[in-house]
Amino acid sequence: MIEKINITALLLAGGRGSRMGHVDKGLQQFRGSTMAAHVLQRLAPQAGVLAINANQNIDTYALFGVPVWPDDLEGFEGPLAGLETGLRRCTTQYLVTAPCDCPFLPPDLVAQLSHALESQGAELALAETEEAGADGVLRVQPHPVFALVKVSALPQLSAYLAGGGRRMDGWYPSIKVARVRFDDANAFRNINTLYELQQFEKDA
Length: 204
Description:
The chain is an alpha/beta fold. The protein has helices at about 35-45, 60, 80-90, 110-120, 155-160, 195-200; strands at about 5-15, 30, 35, 50-55, 95-100, 125-130, 140-150, 175-180. The protein has a 6-stranded mixed sheet, with helices on both faces. Strands 2-3 form a two-stranded antiparallel sheet.
């Protein structure tokens, strides 16, 4: 098992929040705190180092008491840009990512991802769930923003980004990927809109 001291957990909060009315999703109030605070609280026991990837409200995120790393790529280029920045700046051998709008992430996320990464000799392990579509048929749903990555995979990611690629899973053909099935799909539920934020607040 990978020791947590060798893992940096990176909160991905670098988006524009366009589906939430162009507000900073991570800083939205949720159940007595902010969404970012809830995610960090769940990540803290699972990793040796915490950091935040953000491209706006840097001073506010700095109040969480962990390093804040803006994208090295300009122009809000998506979560892969945040991942690349994290891999460049972290001082550990591994980096795990989670988005700021998923406050229910599993307490064993890192443990399961690290077990799969090691046992399969992979460079990256990502979470998957099985969910029913509108037709009632169960399908595998990958969650590439919940991933544990070896820092040594940085050159492949940088090459993909330099070539104009931006899809979160678009660089997977260049590395070995392990996929981990989690039973609780709700743990990966993301809150995209202000309406969803209000609904989850009511369900507390």
